[in-house]
Inverse folding.
């Protein structure tokens, strides 16, 4: 009797575990082509291949940085010349098809050593002369960084920065938990 109960518990647990595991969706040829373009573009950024980046980015490219400022093709190519960390991590890639010659590739990006490290990316690709070109990019920080002067109590958490004490607070947009980090 005990072994039957144990067997039932194992079967129910396994069934629940598999029911909660998302089945990876296979990509259409259209989606696969765009994901491949995105990977090649990010690899070129890592390898400081500014020529490839320049060819891949549309001449009228516009981007929005994590601070809300606009940037253009020449700034993106300049970033490619500096290079990106080799241990970038891209995950949760999704392709939104707008039409046969335009799509948005949205993904999450981890850039070790950068601030912000965690980013939500949205890249808009258009076909120009039969070739995919990056037309627009928006970089949204996953964390909100707030810098504020603190009225200091000896027991408060703060750090001296120049002539004032500063508290850096990192807020996870998905949960109301606050994290403190020294600048």
């Amino acid at each position: 009797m005990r072994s039957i109960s144990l067997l039932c518990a194992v079967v129910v647990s396994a069934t629940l575990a598999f029911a909660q595991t998302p089945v990876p969706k296979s990509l259409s040829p259209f989606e696969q082509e765009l994901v491949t373009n995105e990977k090649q573009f990010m690899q070129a950024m890592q390898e400081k291949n500014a020529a490839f980046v320049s060819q891949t980015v549309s001449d009228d490219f516009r981007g929005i940085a994590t601070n809300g400022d606009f940037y253009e093709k020449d700034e993106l190519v300049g970033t490619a010349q500096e290079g990106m960390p080799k241990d970038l991590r891209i995950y949760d890639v999704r392709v939104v098809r707008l039409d046969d010659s335009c799509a948005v590739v949205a993904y999450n990006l981890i850039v070790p050593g950068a601030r912000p490290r965690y980013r939500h990316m949205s890249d808009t690709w258009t076909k120009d002369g039969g070739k995919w070109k990056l037309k627009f990019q928006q970089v949204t920080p996953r964390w909100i960084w707030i810098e504020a002067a603190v009225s200091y109590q000896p027991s408060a958490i703060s750090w001296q920065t120049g002539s004032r004490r500063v508290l850096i607070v990192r807020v996870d947009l998905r949960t109301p938990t606050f994290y403190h980090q020294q600048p």
About this structure: The helical segments are 2-20, 29-46, 50-56, 73-82.
